[in-house]
User: What shape does this take?
Amino acid sequence: MRFTKMHGIGNDYVYVNGFAQAVVDPAALARKVADRHFGIGGDGLILILPSDKADVRMRMFNADGSESEMCGNGVRCVAKYAFDHGLTASNPMKVETGRGVLTLDLETGRDKKVSRVTVNMGEPILALPEVPVDRDKLVKGGREHEYRLSVAQANELLDATFVSMGNPHAVMYMPDVRAVDLEHIGPEVEHHKAFPRRINAHWVQIHSPSEVTMRTWERGSGITLACGTGACAVCVAGVLTGRTSRKILAHLPGGDLLLEWRESDNNVYMTGPAAEVFSGEWPE
Assistant: This one.
């Protein structure tokens, strides 16, 4: 099986061209190839497939084999692969995902290859049952749009804002994100009883109304260097709680993303790079 390793600010996946070859059991394959010691290494597996409603279709599998609805960094890489490898010449490009068809604007360099992508990530989903979050297992938090959850590892109550960008996110604020013990607190938040489909958890430090730093525990993958949909959720949560403006620069461990939650159409726009690292063959 031919594969290509790609990343968006360090959020790395193994990509397979589904136009040229079929993957029979992508969940099992994801677990194997994502292993950083015995596999190729990555946060999961992404399939680039034909679509009857867009230029290409994306299916994304976490490192544990679970399928996720959406991946913001991953969809930028899908667009880069599809354009650079001639699957489509469309720009803007339409990509079918688990949260519908998204529109992506591509920026190319002198080599005519895609270097940066702006994704219209669509409207955020804020109704708790649709995120989904079980409101009955939480109490009201300190601010509007915040809810409090008990976390034993932190020995405290955490105030979180919940946003879905097609996949569920919990956004929590603190003075210094370096102090977060992600390895221990991340799994507990992900599997909290209030989240029927688990959740992606993000801790955010505010530098100014237009600049933040964030760290992430991703559902099904653990600590990652970046989460595009999570950065979008952070942008939305900042506006809802009155902490940040509608345009922010988010610093993630793997790099920076530009986010904007536009009033004009209520959609969230994410801009960031996409990079191809190497290609190879996996002995199925």
